[in-house]
Design brief:
35% helix, 6-stranded mixed beta sheet, 15 helices, 24 strands, single chain, FAD/NAD(P)-binding domain, Alpha-Beta Plaits, 509 residues
């Protein structure tokens, strides 16, 4: 028995640091602690990371809990604020505003789902704003927050939250966590990759110093360069620019002027959109655009002219191509983060796609042979995740009535993917929304964009008609009142930060 070869993956090598690399290292070190496996992360300080402020989705809380991370400590060390959703301005029509919340709308009234009852009242001309039936939205609008109850007494009180933090500080925070669990950090630049002549598997990498690092499994977190997954293994890239044409961005931080509210903002511009991410010590801003519709100079001028406070640095230009690797797992290499693909940060999905890649890798952690079945399943899961995110991002662009820019007209008239076309048709006709068992963006997310961008269904569940008009109005009034009272009882977001997770640099004031 002792003569049998050891098939267990013992040495895992991660190429690249940043958010993707250190999230991967921290998760693997935590999961494999005590097993005898080694985690080595290779990072060159000569090669920078994207490094702009990041907004996240609620799934990040599950990742932190998996690692045993204390939320208040994490917030303090990353200058984080609370995020209850994303406000979208000017996407349906100029002057429109809606919030995609991290919580549900209303509760079932009789046998029909809540939104069918709201559509019924809208058809009769008696509907209140859809937002008034969501606690996350009403709290966000009021600048309020309280930690969600573990066991809410009512579905109306159920909501969750995410964070807005400095991504470089989050990477540093996870670096300490990973090292505490045994991960090894090696400083150096990869100059050579050695592969097995028979299998094509990566055997080792050589650094500028001449040091050679061998591994059984390699994780490519080298960003857009894709040192292993593309430069060495030539995996290929599925270009989705026809669906999401924005290919450039400028990013710049500015001073905080107004009290920080617990949400991210995305404002549509004539050739793209502009983000606003409030942290405890600054506001992160960026302009995502397509260079077919606006010049670089006009794009940066538009960004700088709309800052709320004094800029704290020079604007940084970023270049990208939306899409994904044809296989995020190829041979004994798994690409996580920007090396695996890029979808513009409209819905704060970049860190969640990193997290999905890590969780799927943990669930399918292979033996040394890296069986094709494991790689195929990983690629199937990640393909599905990327495609669902792509469709949701596209919805914002195609569900628009804007006529003031060529980008908006082109997106509305383009040939949409069948998967998105089906979702839009199903909602327009019968108020049917996607309801995924796994993955991002459940029914409430799709509802927020559909209704927020003025797509109202032609028909609804006929069971919504079972209740008399007066009784339905009474139920809707009860829900609206309950949510308004619950939001009103919360503390202000600034006070919460000061008492719970204020950073050394100082909470927002």
């Amino acid at each position: 028995m002792n003569d049998l070869p050891d098939k267990t993956v013992r040495n895992i090598v991660i190429i690249g640091g940043g958010t993707a690399g250190w999230m991967t290292a921290a998760a693997l070190a935590c999961r494999l602690s005590g097993t005898g496996s080694s985690i080595t992360l290779v990072e060159s300080t000569e090669i920078g990371t994207v490094g702009v402020g990041e907004a996240t989705l609620p799934q990040i809380r599950g990742f932190n809990q998996m690692l045993g991370i204390d939320e208040a400590e994490m917030m303090a060390k990353t200058s984080a604020t609370i995020k209850l959703g994303i406000e979208f301005r000017d996407w349906g029509k100029l002057g429109d505003s809606y919030i995609h919340p991290f919580g549900n709308y209303g509760e079932a009234i009789g046998p029909a789902e809540f939104h069918h009852c709201w559509v019924r009242t809208h058809a009769s001309g008696n509907a209140q704003s859809f937002e008034e039936y969501c606690l996350s939205i009403m709290a966000a609008r009021a600048g309020k927050f309280a930690l969600p109850p573990d066991n809410p007494s009512s579905v109306l009180d159920a909501y969750t939250h995410a964070f807005q933090f400095d991504a470089s500080l989050y990477a540093a925070f996870l670096s300490s966590h990973a090292k505490d669990n045994g991960a090894v950090h090696v400083e150096g630049k990869v100059v050579e990759v050695a592969t097995d002549s028979e299998t094509g598997f990566i055997v080792s990498v050589t650094l500028e110093t001449g040091e050679e690092i061998s591994g059984d499994l390699f994780v490519d977190c080298s960003g857009f360069r894709g040192i292993l997954i593309e430069q060495e293994l030539e995996t290929g890239y599925d270009d989705w620019s026809e669906y999401l044409p924005c290919n450039r961005a400028y990013a710049v931080p500015c001073e905080i002027i107004d009290p920080v509210r617990p949400f991210t903002r995305a404002t549509a511009r004539h050739a793209g959109w502009q983000w606003r991410i409030p942290l405890q010590h600054r506001i992160g801003n960026g302009h995502v655009y397509c260079d077919r519709y606006i010049s670089d100079q006009d794009a940066v001028d538009q960004l700088m002219s709309t800052l709320e406070g004094k800029p704290l640095a020079d604007p940084k230009q970023l270049f990208f191509k939306t899409g994904k690797r044809r296989n995020l797992w190829n041979k004994n290499c798994v690409a996580i983060g920007l090396s695996g693909g890029f979808l513009e940060p409209l819905e704060s999905t970049s860190i969640d796609l990193i997290q999905s890649g890590i969780v799927n890798l943990l669930n399918l952690l292979p033996e040394k042979e890296c069986a094709a079945a494991d790689a195929n399943e990983y690629n199937r899961l990640m393909d599905r995740e990327y495609e669902r995110v792509r469709d949701f991002l596209m919805l914002h662009y195609v569900a628009t009535q804007r006529e003031d820019g060529e980008l908006w007209r082109d997106m509305r008239n383009m040939d949409w993917p069948d998967s998105l076309k089906h979702k839009i048709d199903a909602f327009k006709h019968r108020a049917i929304v996607p309801d995924y068992t796994h993955g991002l963006f459940a029914a409430a997310s799709w509802l927020s964009v559909f209704i927020g961008q003025n797509i109202i269904p032609e028909h609804y569940d006929p069971r919504a008609d079972l209740m008399a008009d007066e009784a339905l109005a009474e139920e809707l009034g009860r829900i609206e009142k309950h949510i308004a009272q619950s939001a009103g009882q919360m503390t202000s977001h600034d006070v919460f930060i000061a008492e719970y997770g204020a950073s050394f640099e100082g909470a927002a004031t």
